[in-house]
Amino acid sequence: MLWLVRGDIDGFFGLALDNLVQLLVIVGLCGGVLGFPGELLYGHILPGVAVSLLVGNGFYAWQAKQLAAATGRRDVCALPYGINTVSLFAYVFLVMLPAKLAAQAAGAADPARVAWQAGLLACFGSGLIEFGGAFIAERLRKATPRAALLSTLAGIALSFIALGFLFRAYAHPLVGLTTLGVILLTYFGRVRFKGGLPGGLVAVVLGTLLAWLSGVAPVGAAPAAAGWHWPIPVLGDLLASMRADLLLAYLSVIIPMGLFNLLGSLQNIESAEAAGDLYPTTPSLAVNGLGTLAACLFGSCFPTTIYIGHPGWKALGARAGYSVLNGLFITFICLTGTLSYIAWAVPVDAGMAIMLWIGIVMAAQAFSATPVAHGPAVVMGLLPGIAAWGALMAKSGLRAAGYGAPGGPAFTEALLAPFNQADIWIHGAFALEQGAIFTSTILAAITVAVIERRFIQAAVWSGIAAGLSALGLMHSYRWTPGDTALSLTAAWPWVQAYAAMSLVFLAARWVTVEDDEAGGI
Question: pTM for the full model?
Answer without folding.
Answer: 0.75
